[in-house]
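Researcher: Sequence recovery benchmark, item below. Answer with residues only.
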């Protein structure tokens, strides 16, 4: 049974605390790895929250760092226990981007740039089905349906009555023009985007073709921010076989500045909604 505890966030917070203890001790990850007879990459993965961490790992690390306050040890051990519980997405089996879902589930705001498709949180079911089938032609019908269900479940964050996810989307005009599924699917999809863009916590801007070269030319990315100040912002870049998560302040700052330029070059909110509605009408002809 899925737990209300978010294991991804627990791992991140635990990893950050373990890194703080290591740095406070003045030790490198390599030195810690040598003491515990493990690989340096394991220590790095534990600290960045990308690897499940056991209570035994926490106990051993606290021993190396000479943590004398048992309350701190107990707190970290509990975090390790929580981090091994299952989030709601585990009920759907092996999801390739489960780390991202965990972050998105706990995020306070999400800024995303999409150069080719409508962003997942705003996709209709027919659009999502056609998109996944086209992008993953060798995927079984059952796996396509599983992915669609996960995508629809993720959308509960923007439809929540209390504390919904604040979403800011910059869509390249190509995402409006690329026919996914059929013209009817596209018309209904764009009408849905236009409708959702009227909600106070959702902002949608369109980056028109005539802008030419722009800071997002290299592809899609998202910036996740969290309410808890202990959780650093994360830049997420989706890949074909693996994803990239950037958390270092200079990296996040660079992508944030890029996003500000994209927002400035895009049509304003009213113009964007009008452009989306106009293209939707074109699909109705």
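Model:
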């Amino acid at each position: 049974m899925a737990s209300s505890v978010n294991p991804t966030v627990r791992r991140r917070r635990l990893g950050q605390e373990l890194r703080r203890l290591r740095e406070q001790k003045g030790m490198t990850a390599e030195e810690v790895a040598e003491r515990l007879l493990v690989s340096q990459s394991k220590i790095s993965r534990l600290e960045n929250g990308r690897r499940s961490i056991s209570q035994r790992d926490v106990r051993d690390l606290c021993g190396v760092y000479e943590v004398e306050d048992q309350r701190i040890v107990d707190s970290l051990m509990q975090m390790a226990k929580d981090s091994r519980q299952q989030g709601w997405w585990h009920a759907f089996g092996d999801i390739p981007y489960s780390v991202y879902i965990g972050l998105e589930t706990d995020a306070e705001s999400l800024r995303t740039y999409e150069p080719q498709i409508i962003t997942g949180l705003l996709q209709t079911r027919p659009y999502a089905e056609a998109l996944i089938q086209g992008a993953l032609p060798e995927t079984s019908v059952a796996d396509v349906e599983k992915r669609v269900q996960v995508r629809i479940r993720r959308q509960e964050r923007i439809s929540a009555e209390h504390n919904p996810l604040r979403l800011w989307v910059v869509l390249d005009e190509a995402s409006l023009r690329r026919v996914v599924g059929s013209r009817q699917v596209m018309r209904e999809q764009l009408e849905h985007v236009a409708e959702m863009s009227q909600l106070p916590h959702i902002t949608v801007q369109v980056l028109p073709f005539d802008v030419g070269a722009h800071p997002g030319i290299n592809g899609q990315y998202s910036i996740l921010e969290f309410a808890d100040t202990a959780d650093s912002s994360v830049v997420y870049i989706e890949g074909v076989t693996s994803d990239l998560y950037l958390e270092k302040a200079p990296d996040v700052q660079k992508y944030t500045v890029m996003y500000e330029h994209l927002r400035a070059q895009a049509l304003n909110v009213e113009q964007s909604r009008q452009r989306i509605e106009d293209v939707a009408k074109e699909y109705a002809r």
